[in-house]
Design a protein that fits this description.
single chain, 358 residues, mainly alpha, 2 domains, two-stranded antiparallel ribbon, 16 helices
């Protein structure tokens, strides 16, 4: 009996030992030899390399330095000293002011380009201190695929420009010159000659008669002058050499060692001119000074302008008002005919003939 119990106990202990041995981790053997190292991967492209091509201290200093010479920074419009924004609300309360602030103030331009309408407000929203700055024209890049999409320079407005005075006409400098669309966004007239025509066939001329200071893009385009029939024909739109073979930024933002030329001063640089004018830069448009002076004298003699060249309010014939419009358009352009010599001289000569009754 005792032997039987002893035997049972031995069996139980053996089973227990067997169970423990089956569930215990095996004893590891000696470590194996190290494997062969893999081949190093190829270094990736620095993600900021393309950004740094423009976003660097040297470029920033050059941009800001040349900008200090620009009309956008300190234009006085020949009325006094101060920035463009000082004219943001000049004499135009309420809704009319928003038309000015769209191009004369930082916030107004941003709002206009993003929503299609400049904010309507009063001081201090548009109090003449919201000067045009880097952030006015530049916001965020629309794409970072510059190789395929081109450089947008983070400009807010690079699409072809539908004219304010004539929505049926679109200025398009092409895919290679989208930066010039930014210029045309503001440098365009706010009205056209036909807007002042009266039912009796005459023209109502007010103290602000003319296309305003944004005539550059339309004169370059060769449109929106009061095209009086005369001895000089008008070239087809976009046919001027500076329009068909160049653009705003090609001429006004060229390379230069002088911060007051090209770059962000927007003053023409000699390097831009000699790209095409290899035999020397023309000093003036042939006949412009004499022709413009003659036109001005006739307008003054006939009482259409005052001594300062401003329009004299009244109701005039189409011929008289057309000549006055052309005079104001050429003056507001400020290029002395350079933007579009043929179109400018046609407007001048035909206007002179109209005032002389030819």
């Amino acid at each position: 009996m005792k032997n039987s119990k002893l035997f049972s106990l031995i069996l139980i202990l053996a089973a227990a030992l067997f169970s423990v041995q089956c569930t215990t981790d095996p004893i590891p053997g000696p470590p194996g030899e190290d494997g062969v190292d893999g081949v190093d991967g190829v270094d990736g492209v620095d993600g900021t390399a393309e950004c740094a091509a423009c976003h660097n201290i040297s470029t920033s200093e050059e941009v800001h330095g040349s900008y200090l010479f620009s009309g956008h920074y300190n234009e006085n419009m020949d009325h006094g000293d101060g920035p463009l924004s000082q004219y943001a609300n000049r004499g135009f309360p309420g809704g009319a002011a928003s038309a000015c602030t769209a191009c004369h103030t930082n916030d107004g331009y941003i709002d206009w380009t993003e929503t299609g309408m400049a904010m309507v407000g009063s001081a201090p929203v548009y109090d003449g201190t919201q000067t045009i700055s880097c952030s006015s024209c530049h916001g965020e890049h629309k794409t970072f695929d510059f190789e395929n999409d081109g450089y947008d320079y983070a400009l807010r407005a690079i699409a072809p420009v539908e004219l304010i005075a004539d929505a049926s006409y679109v200025i398009d400098y092409g895919a290679d010159n989208v930066t010039s669309h930014t210029c045309a966004t503001c440098h365009q007239p706010r009205s056209k000659f036909e807007d002042s025509l009266l039912e009796d066939g005459n023209v109502d001329v007010g103290g602000r008669f003319g296309p305003h200071y944004g005539a550059q893009s339309t004169l370059l385009e060769g449109i929106q002058g009061a095209e009086i029939a005369g001895s000089v024909p008008y070239d087809a739109p976009t046919s001027a050499a500076h329009r068909s073979g160049s653009s705003c930024t090609n001429c006004h933002m060229g390379d230069s060692n002088d911060l007051n030329e090209g770059k962000h001063s927007w003053n023409w640089a000699e390097s831009s001119c000699t790209t095409c004018h290899s035999n020397g830069i023309p000093t003036e448009v042939t006949g412009f000074e004499q022709g413009f002076a003659t036109l001005e004298g006739l307008l003054l003699d006939q009482g259409l302008i005052n001594e300062e060249g401003g329009p004299v309010s009244g109701e005039y014939t189409v011929s008289q008002a057309s000549a006055l419009w052309n005079y104001r358009m050429i003056y507001y352009d400020h290029s002395k005919g350079v933007h579009n010599p043929n179109y400018t001289m046609a407007l001048i000569q035909n206007s002179i003939e109209a005032l002389n009754g030819n």
